[in-house]
Design brief:
11 strands, 286 residues, Arc Repressor Mutant, subunit A, alpha/beta, D-Maltodextrin-Binding Protein, domain 2, single chain, 9 helices, 21% strand
């Protein structure tokens, strides 16, 4: 008599083993913790053996679980390879995604990774430009989906999250004490005019000692403690930290991260990429 392993349950088991817990596995699989737990129980019932030992300190695999893990990884790899190669041509093509460089992290790498796993034959072309330039690309049919940072919501956009704009400087830095305030921005950055206007309103003098359209140069300048900048909370470079509240810098407004989908963008692949963006952005929504 032939017996078949449940591939969904097997994927839950392997993901729990790889991530070290049900909670992290549920996040990676985009399902609830209870769903992962049910899949594990189903697999254990099917094999009539315990696969995981649960304790207050976490989980560990039983001897049977260790054996199944090796088989499970190979089976899932073959399953995913076959699925990717034999998927219908409808799952092929190009999608043009536009994102401002200062909100690439932490969300977009995770979005692209999960989308590529589910749709390996789809090529996502990523364009990194300021919000205004991305909106022009969308208007000229050069983008399928764009994300923007704006204070106001247009009728034809979807607000993904609203996040405070914060002052950042180098970790352990002191340039924020200097007057005039030393700022680092690309000329086209939407946060540049906001920062300048806020400082002007509070009669705080400022200077911009760097002139570059490359965001990498801006990050390096701030990381070197030569200037400060303001970006959305949580999207900062790991070499930066929030400037103390008692530094004398005025508070900044909240900005929305918005998603625009091109007119006629009802293509299944475009909608699936938009779905991944919503799911992953929702994890850190304020």
């Amino acid at each position: 008599m032939y017996r078949n392993l449940d591939m969904t349950a097997l994927r839950s088991f392997v993901t729990v083993a790889d991530t070290g817990g049900v909670t992290r596995a549920a996040g990676k699989l985009h399902v609830t913790q209870s769903a992962v737990s049910m899949q594990l129980k189903r697999l254990e019932n099917l094999l009539d053996t315990d696969l995981i030992e649960r304790s207050g300190r976490g989980i560990s695999l039983t001897a049977q679980g260790e054996q199944l893990l090796g088989y499970g990884r190979r089976m899932l790899a073959l399953n995913d390879e076959a699925w990717g190669r034999l998927t219908h041509d409808a799952y092929e093509g190009d999608i043009n995604l536009g994102v401002p460089p200062d909100i690439i992290y932490p969300h977009i790498p995770e979005v692209l990774h999960h989308f590529a796993t589910d749709f390996p034959r789809v090529n996502v072309k990523l364009t990194c430009e300021p919000s205004l330039a991305l909106k022009e690309n969308l208007a000229h049919g050069q983008a399928d989906i764009i994300l923007t940072t704006e204070t106001k919501t247009d009728a034809n956009t979807e607000l993904l999250q609203r996040t405070p704009l914060r002052w950042y400087g180098a970790v352990g830095g002191e340039v924020w004490k200097k007057r005039p305030v030393q700022l680092a921005y690309q000329p086209s950055c939407i946060f540049r005019s906001e920062a300048i206007a806020t400082l002007d309103q509070h009669d705080i003098t400022w200077d911009i000692p760097i002139n570059s359209n490359d965001y990498q140069n801006i990050m390096a300048f701030v990381s070197a403690d030569l200037a400060i900048t303001a970006v959305l909370e949580g999207t900062h470079n790991p070499n930066w930290e929030i400037i103390p509240a008692d530094a004398g810098l005025p508070p900044l407004p909240n900005y929305g991260i918005h998603m625009y989908i091109a007119e006629g963008g009802q293509d299944m692949l475009v909608q699936e990429l938009a779905r991944f963006i919503r799911l992953i952005m929702a994890k850190t929504a304020h």
